[in-house]
Design goal:
Number of strands: 10
Strand content: 25-35%
Shape: elongated
Distance between the termini: 23 Å
CATH class of the largest domain: Mainly Beta
CATH topology of the largest domain: Pdz3 Domain
Organism: Galeopterus variegatus (Malayan flying lemur)
Helix content: 10-25%
Protein name: Amyloid beta A4 precursor protein-binding family A member 1
InterPro entries: APP-Binding, PDZ, PDZ_sf
Largest sheet: 4 strands, antiparallel
Keywords: Repeat
CATH superfamily of the largest domain: PDZ domain
CATH architecture of the largest domain: Roll
Radius of gyration: 20 Å
Pfam families: PDZ
Structural class: alpha+beta
């Protein structure tokens, strides 16, 4: 997708138009490259007459599959208020795709968005077999639930 602008801040305008047109969805990231440079640069290029906007698919929700044979195996991560705080290297959670800084949205098909911390810990500590979880970056969760406002620069 190419958009031409002669004003300063053309990339921000291009990004805004992409969002408004539906070409850029929540969870996708945009990067621009300046002609002749051959590298990706952050949005906000100055004094460029042409901006190339590349849409990178990056869905906000990540699906995780933890295989826990029985209760003797540790899950290998810690959670605080639904957010994954730390991860044991090489543990079954890391192998399953768990990421630090992600908010747990769902555990085995059950939404845990408004679930108290103690109940999330109880569900996870008693789960055995294949544990399917859906997570998303905590910052994205806060933006989508209007707990935080984006900062425009």
């Amino acid at each position: 997708m190419k958009m031409e602008r002669k004003k300063r801040g053309a990339s921000a305008t291009a990004r805004s138009q992409a969002v408004l047109s539906g070409a850029l969805c929540s969870g996708e990231r945009a990067a621009t490259s300046a002609p002749g440079r051959g590298r990706v640069a952050p949005l906000g290029l100055k004094n460029q007459s042409r901006v190339k906007l590349n849409i990178v698919r990056c869905p906000p929700v990540t699906t995780v599959l933890i295989r826990r044979p029985d209760l003797r195996y540790q899950l290998g991560f810690s959670v605080q208020n639904g957010i994954i705080c730390s991860l044991m290297r090489g543990g079954i959670a890391e192998r399953g795709g768990v990421r630090v800084g992600h908010r747990i949205i769902e555990i085995t098909g059950q939404s845990v968005v408004a679930t108290p911390h103690e109940k999330i810990v109880h569900i996870l500590s008693n789960a055995v077999g294949e544990i399917h979880m859906k997570t998303m970056p905590a910052a994205m969760y806060r933006l989508l639930t209007a707990q935080e406002q984006p900062v425009y620069i």
